[in-house]
Design brief:
By secondary structure, this protein is mainly α. The protein has 9 helices and no strands.
């Protein structure tokens, strides 16, 4: 009973924060509402005994992606009028996508009506162990392809943002390695001084 009440409390906070994300006039407030939505979704996943997914959501999205997004939003001077220009033009497509998502959620949540009960797990079941087993056996090739695509994306992002400044000084290690003592050191013969 307590878990059910906690689930509905988390779900209510998730719905309110999700609405705040799309209705917030300030992008920083919308991003902070999205952080709250991620935390409450992680709480729901913990209630559903999906510990690894909950921790991954908090670490990856809240800890990395949202912090980076907040820095970008706060550093850039965003023209809010230009952002709001395409709202009414994109509203029909947004309503269609939202309707499809609602239908999918109703289909998932009404599985008891159609007689599909969730699989019962044994006593020593570990969600993280099962996820790792499936990920590194059945989906190992897809996992490696995703890793290569992410690596290429990181390298491309670094290459696109790398700029050479004309006034910056740099050292050429190849010239330093090729240097010889005769080129750098000059021995000067000086007579000894007498007191």
């Amino acid at each position: 009973m307590f878990e059910t009440a906690l689930f509905y409390a988390f779900a209510a906070v998730l719905l309110v924060s999700g609405l705040a994300v799309i209705t917030a006039r300030n992008p920083v407030h919308g991003a902070l509402a999205l952080v709250l939505a991620f935390f409450t979704a992680a709480g729901i996943w913990l209630l559903l005994r999906a510990e690894f997914l909950a921790i991954a959501l908090v670490v990856v999205y809240v800890g990395a992606v949202m912090v980076l997004f907040l820095f970008v939003v706060m550093m850039l001077d965003i023209n809010l009028e230009r952002v709001r220009e395409g709202f009414w033009r994109n509203l029909p497509l947004a309503l269609v996508v939202g309707g499809i998502m609602v239908v999918e959620m109703i289909a998932v949540l009404s599985r008891n009506i159609w007689g599909q009960n969730p699989r019962q797990v044994p006593a020593g079941y570990s969600n993280t162990k099962e996820l790792g087993r499936v990920l590194y056996t059945q989906y190992a090739f897809a996992f490696e392809i995703a890793a290569v695509i992410l690596l290429v994306a990181i390298i491309a992002a670094i290459a696109l943002t790398l700029r050479r400044r004309k006034d910056s000084r740099h050292q050429d290690p190849a010239l330093q390695v090729r240097a010889r003592r005769e080129e750098r050191v000059r021995l000067v013969s000086m007579p000894a001084e007498k007191e």
